[in-house]
Structure formats: C-alpha cells, structure tokens
Amino acid sequence: MGSRDKVSTILASQFAYFQQFTFVIKHKAGVLNKVADALCLRQSLLSTLHTSVPGFSVLPDMYPTDSFFGKFWIDAVEGRCSDYFVLEGFLFRGIQLCIPECSLGLQIIKEFHSEGHVGRDRTLQLVTHSYFWPSLRRDVERYVLHCGIFQASKGHASNLHSHGLILALIFVLVLPRTQRGHDSIMVVVDRFSKMAHFLACRKMTDAAQVRSLFFQEIYKLYGLPQSIVSDRDSDFLSHFWRGQYQNMGFNRFPPGMYNKLKPRKIGPLDILEKISGNAYPLRLPPDMNTADIFNVKHLSSFHGDDDVTNSGSNFSSPGAT
C-alpha cells in the first residue's frame, strides 16, 4: 500500500495506525485456525424459548367460577368431557383456548382487528382460529361496528341491481335536421329499469357538450352512475368522466399514496332537519365547498361507544377483569 501514489482518506488513516506496529502477515489454513467464531458456537445457541403473556396467567383461577366454563372445567379435570381438556392449567376446546368472562376477550379482538382494520368476517375468522368464548361472534360484530377507523374507511356496499348505477349511452346519428339544428339523438338507458331517455344533439357534439347535456338532464334523475357503457371509444369516455368529476368539484384520482384505510367518509355530522323523507341537510365543516343537502343513500349511520355491559368481553370496563 505504501507504494501507491493515491489512497483514500480512510485507507491512509488505517495505514498510519498500523505503521506503529511490527508484524508479519502469514497465511493460515482454515483447519489450523482454532479461533472461535459464530459457527463454532452453534451448540451454545438457545434451543427452547419461553414466552409469558400478561393477563393469561390469571385464567386458570377464573375457570372454576366462570358461569359458562365452570362445568366444563370440572368435567375436563375429571376426564369426563371429550370436547374440552386441560393443558398446563388452561382449558382448551379442541385447538381453541377458552377465555372466561373478563376484559381479555376485548383485548384479543382489538389486537386482531387493529392489524389491518379488516371486516367482521375476517376478524371473526382470525379470533376463532385460536380462541373461544360463548359470546365471541356477538362481541366481534359489536367491536367492528363501533371501530371509528373502520367506519370512516369502509365504502358503501353498492347494489348493482338498482336504479341508475349502470347506464348505457348510445348515439343515433344522421337524422333529419330540426329547426334548432339537431340531427342526432343521444339515448341514455338505465340497465336496471330499462327506462330510456332521448336527448336531442348534433352529430359533431364533442365529449364536453355531451357531459354538459348529461349533467343537466340525467344527473338530476340518477345521480352519478358507477359505470357507463357507450358505443364511443375509450378516449371519449375518459374525457367524459374527467370533466364530470371536475364539474362536481373533486378529483377522481387525488394525488398521494394509496391507503386502503384512508378515510372515505367524514363525520360524525349533525343532521339539521329532514326533507321529504329521503334528504337531510347537514352541518358541514367550513372548508367543504359543496351543498349541505344529501340523499339518504349517501349517508351512513354513526356508531359511537357501546355501553352494553352484558358481554363476555365486558365492553363497559375494558381495564377490568
């Protein structure tokens, strides 16, 4: 290294450090190298692990006095029950650990649901794989129903077999010209009710004009559809959808990273009054630039904290056992 003209700063500092020592570098075969390394210490590695979960240690003391598992505990200890058995002081139902009436059931549901704020069925599947208590299904439904993040991020379950969700857009061209210059007809058909709407237009009508005509005549009847089938090309539909969302004042594909838990709803909001049975004016935040009257199909009921005490998970006092 000393014969090199240029070396890096790190090599130069290391070379200056080693110059204060006198040593000779010799090769030594691996068989003769008896210095202990990580591979030589494999027999010293841990072969067993012991875990301790806070809260589970009190379960063996709660089984005999539990209103549901008490009788199964006695039968399992005496060997008279085939469905339940005792292992290291814990009561099992098959491969499921039995949880007596305490707040631990709520904590278990919370741990599984908070991993991704999945729906009721998926949360129930995760919990029932390893745990069991009599009110498990009801407790999972109640917890998922009252989860604030899940309520805000879950979309509406759309029924495609309902009015106005799927529309067909067809153009009948080259007809006799009217006094107003119209020579074509735009036909909008509701795929569910088969109701057709005929709108006069021109052969050279572009996507912007079609969008304006659709917004004036069709949107007030059905709202914004989920899908439109048209005999025009994909570029026409792309311009149509882009302009339609611009007219409504929001971006269909907002910038930013996609997150399935990103809120799709806002709230809770106060309902000011009820209009004709299916419309409600709401008290909106001041930064929302939209009308404050919404149809009932665009609203979701808000579920706050649950005060029900008759539960195996003891929702009213999560910290109690």
Give an overview of the whole structure.
Pfam families: Integrase_H2C2, SH3_Tf2-1. One of its GO terms (molecular function) is nucleic acid binding. InterPro entries: Integrase_H2C2 (IPR041588), RNaseH-like_sf (IPR012337), RNaseH_sf (IPR036397), SH3_Tf2-1 (IPR056924). Residues 103-154 form the Integrase zinc-binding domain. Residues 256-303 form the Tf2-1-like SH3-like domain. This protein has 321 residues and is an alpha+beta fold. It has a domain at 59-153: Endonuclease III, domain 1. It has ten helices and ten strands. The chain has helices at residues 9-18, 59-62, 70-77, 104-114, 120-128, 136-145, 148-153, 207-217, 219-222, 234-248; strands at 84-87, 90-93, 96-98, 131-132, 166-172, 184-190, 196-201, 227-230, 279-281, 293-295. The strands form three sheets. Strands 1-2-3-4 form a four-stranded mixed β-sheet, with helices on one face. A hairpin with a 2-residue loop joins strand 1 (84-87) and strand 2. The longest helix is centred in the last third of the chain and has 15 residues, at 234-248. The protein starts with 8 loop residues before the first helix and ends in a 26-residue tail after the last strand. The relative contact order is 0.10. Mean pLDDT is 77; it is low at 307-321.
Short structural summary:
The chain is α+β, with helices and mostly antiparallel strands and 321 residues long.
